[in-house]
Specification:
heterodimer, A: alpha/beta, Aspartate Aminotransferase, domain 1, 2 domains, 7-stranded mixed sheet, 4-stranded antiparallel sheet, 15 strands, 40% helix, globular, B: 2 strands
Chain lengths: 404, 133
């Protein structure tokens, strides 16, 4: 039984008032709150077991190396990768995508090759490919979504061809909430010989993601959106592909043998983790994944789906409010516009009522413009969100409407 | 109205609701921007809403007009212009804007992290005072 009120006790911040009002935190899609389990684990490791990893053969270094590699195992379990070696720790999803573009992209892509992305990508899954296009002369193709923000298979298939070398697509849009049918898209992409990279920043937060079932070649996500710390993220890659890729950065820990003349490089994932990594953040992320798995990914998904339906109905009751992104298959992300009200004005008033929403272009300016707006307000759900949060949001929006 | 009158008026406003209503009211009386300034060139960057600032130098004084597509921001711009417009560069440099906003209980709106454009607008006004005058 998923008891959200009991789960909320793991998140002390949620019971601390904001502007004298109960904390109604509806910006988890930007960054999620952290459970005490994650914070405690990091605190204890810092206080009692800290040293550098993969270094000296002394007690503390061994302890911390075990904990760091255990975190990798937890991510291996979280994503169901074939092995730990397919889990590369990076700074965040943005770095993961940049790593693939710089390492795999520079080595394997040539002028005329195509990278195919959707209209709904976050800047992090658009700009690195634009940069690679300008550097290498590849073509960047962008398939359309519908006016309701739905995935359109015919648009995808129209642009998918033998020239496509990589399909880089979000698992779930951070603006529209649309969930893309990754497994089916991967199957279609593989038929033409393209690889598939999934931006799973929102995707891994809300449902079980099984990379073997999806059969994607790369997948990235950020720790801080997945109830873990900031400064850490994950790049998953199929081992044989990772092994074919040159290093992204050079330095300590990623090398095998070094002389003044020549250096040979370590195997994946270490080849891609140059320098001292974000040790404690990785351990915190491992703990966050463990926390989510202990709640049950299925149960988290069910809770959020129920709440998504509840939120959709509640927002639709508000006169003049339009939800942007109405795909049937969508997660708990609600971008919306209220007639006669600028999102920024709305957010100021919601803030006074203790309600946190994001406003602006959500680092996905092209899709916000494509849907016909300069700026949108966005409320997003986490595993700790409740119907009461939504009721407070709705009451606050109605209150804001009275000002204008 | 000068800024001291505004501070006095604010003292009668007990709740944030009254304050925001008053700020929106201030915005609605803002002198309109000349149309030729409603362009990318005159936009203040780093705002979640669109904000424009039009500077003019007349008889050694800097005159400003401003606008925004968000109503509360527009009202806040009215306050900023009340503080800065029709002053000499030297006078502008001496103004302690944070202090005035604190007296109004609006200090959070001047924070650079707020990204509502006010911080950038004040920076820009100071820049004009340094370069134009």
């Amino acid at each position: 039984m998923y008891d959200v009120y009991k789960i909320r006790q793991d998140f002390p911040i949620l019971s601390i008032p904001v502007n004298g009002k109960p904390n109604t935190f509806l910006d988890s899609a930007a960054s999620a709150q952290k459970p005490a389990q994650v914070i405690e684990k990091m605190r204890r490791m810092y206080l009692e077991e800290y040293a550098n990893v993969h270094r000296g053969s002394y007690y503390l270094s061994e302890q911390i190396t075990v904990a760091y590699e255990e975190a990798r195992s937890q991510i291996h379990e979280f994503l169901n990768t074939k092995s730990d070696k397919e889990v590369v720790f990076v700074r965040n999803a943005t770095e993961g995508i940049n790593l693939v573009a710089a390492s795999w992209g520079r080595k394997f892509l040539q002028a005329g090759d195509e990278v195919l992305i959707s209209q709904a990508e976050h800047h992090a899954n658009l700009v690195p490919w634009q940069a690679l296009r300008d550097e290498k002369g590849i073509n960047l193709k962008i398939f359309k979504v519908s006016d309701r923000g739905e995935y359109l298979e015919e648009e995808f298939l129209n642009l998918l061809s033998e020239k496509t070398k990589l399909v880089a697509v979000t698992g779930m849009s951070n603006v529209l909430g649309t969930v893309f049918p990754i497994k089916r898209m991967a199957e279609q992409a593989h038929k033409v010989g393209a690889l598939v990279l999934v931006d799973a920043c929102q995707y891994t937060v809300h449902q079980k993601v099984d990379v073997q079932d999806l059969d994607c070649d790369f997948l990235v996500f950020s720790g801080h959106k997945t109830y873990g710390p900031s400064g850490i993220g994950v790049l998953y890659g199929k081992y044989n592909i990772l092994d074919s890729m040159p290093p992204y950065q050079y330095g300590g820990d990623m090398v095998d043998t070094v002389s003044y003349e020549k250096t040979t490089f370590n195997e994946p994932p270490f080849r891609f983790e140059a320098g001292t990594p974000a040790i404690m953040q990785a351990i915190g992320l491992g703990e966050a994944a463990k926390y989510m798995m202990s709640l049950g990914m299925e149960d988290i998904f069910k809770h959020e789906q129920e709440l998504t339906t509840y939120t959709t109905n509640a927002l639709n009751e508000i006169k003049g409010l339009k939800i942007i992104g109405q795909a049937k298959d969508k997660g708990g992300v609600f971008s919306f516009n209220v007639e006669g009200m600028h999102p920024q004005d709305l957010a100021f008033i919601l803030d006074k009522e203790g309600v946190a929403v994001r406003t602006g272009h959500h680092c996905a300016q092209p899709i916000v413009n494509r849907m016909g707006y300069e700026s949108l307000a966005r409320a997003s759900l986490g595993l700790y969100s409740t119907k009461e949060d939504i009721d407070t949001l709705v009451a606050a929006i109605r209150k804001a409407q009275k000002f204008f | 109205m000068d800024i001291q009158e505004l501070i006095d008026n604010f003292e009668f406003l007990d709740t944030w609701e009254e304050k925001y209503s008053y700020i929106i009211e201030l915005g609605s009386h803002l002198e309109p921007l000349d149309e030729e300034y409603r362009t990318e060139e005159w936009k203040v960057r780093g705002c979640q809403s669109q904000v424009w600032l039009e500077p003019k130098l007349e008889n050694g004084k800097l005159l400003f007009k401003g606008d925004s597509d968000a109503f509360i921001v527009k009202g806040l711009i009215a306050i900023v212009l009340m503080i800065y417009s029709n002053k000499s560069a030297q006078e502008i440099k001496e103004i302690e804007v944070e202090e005035i906003f604190a007296k109004l209980g609006l200090q959070e709106h001047l924070s650079p992290s707020r990204r509502n454009g006010l911080f950038s607008m004040v920076e820009k006004i100071k820049h004009y005072a340094d370069t134009l005058a």
